[in-house]
Amino acid sequence: AQRVTQPEKLLSVFKGAPVELKCNYSYSGSPELFWYVQYSRQRLQLLLRHISRESIKGFTADLNKGETSFHLKKPFAQEEDSAMYYCALWHPNAGGTSYGKLTFGQGTILTVHP
Amino acid sequence: DGGITQSPKYLFRKEGQNVTLSCEQNLNHDAMYWYRQDPGQGLRLIYYSQIVNDFQKGDIAEGYSVSREKKESFPLTVTSAQKNPTAFYLCASSPPRRRYTEAFFGQGTRLTVV
Questions:
Q1: Is B112 exposed, middle or buried (0-12, 13-18, 19+ CB in 10 A)?
Q2: A52 in helix, strand or coil?
């Protein structure tokens, strides 16, 4: 069965320090992975997706199929990065349909101190 | 203003009562989802619907019911059978399946049983 694990509930760093939020997944197929972010008093929103290989707000995430990981990284954290971060795995329904669902990890609360 | 709207923002319920949470979207999305967010447990999928008049149970469907009579609407009923209903509920929608489709979230409803 598909599963997403974020081992850290809380992560604290100082401004300017590197930050890495860990995500591991369990899935038998070819994974489609995302990072979502929820800032204080805002909606949960997409941060980035692995297929795009993009950098959003200085964050990057590389899919490592060997380690089944999709860790989120930023070389220099900023105070405005403080938020709840969720790793998510999209997987299709059985039967080869185009429909599916998103499974989320437990989330990591990142706090960046001044 | 396009988007996904949940109402009410806060809801109080007496034990033994059913209560219905509203979710409406004007994004013309086919798929809609209900998640429950609890501290330390992340987002857990309750129900999801890919098309009108069809829906599937998620991981924690017991004590909940849904309907999908219109594309725009996906109400969630929390029944008296739900043992621990106090939580933050999030509704989401996504467009017809394309590769790496993004999910859009509402602002949530906080339900408290008193």
A1: exposed
A2: helix
AA identity, residue A11: L
- Do residues A72 and A59 lie in contact, with contact meaning Cβ atoms separated by under 8 Å? yes
Q: Around A14, how many Cα atoms within 13 Å sit in the side-chain half-sphere?
A: 0
Q: How far is A107 from B42, CA to CA, in rounded Å?
A: 5
Tens-place pLDDT, residues B60-72: 999 999 999 999 9
β-strands A72-74, A83-92 pairing: unpaired
Q: Which two tokens stand for residue B100?
A: 């790496």
In the block, which residue shows the tokens 């394309």? B98
- Which residue in chain B has the smallest CA separation from A7? B40
**Per residue of chain A (114 residues), what is the pLDDT tens digit?**
788 999 999 999 999 999 999 999 998 888 889 999 999 989 999 999 887 778 889 999 989 989 999 999 999 999 999 999 999 998 776 655 567 788 899 999 999 999
Find residue A92's DSSP bridge partners.
Answer: A100
Q: Tell me whether A46 touches chain B (CB under 8 Å).
A: yes
Check if the beta carbon of residue B78 is closer than 8 Å to that of residue B63: yes
A chain contacts of residue B93, beta-carbon cutoff 8 Å: none
Query: Under a CB-based contact definition with an 8 Å cutoff, are residues B62 and B78 in contact?
Result: no
Amino acid at B84: N
| pLDDT mean across residues, chain B | 90
Q: Do B42 and A44 touch (CB under 8 A)?
A: no
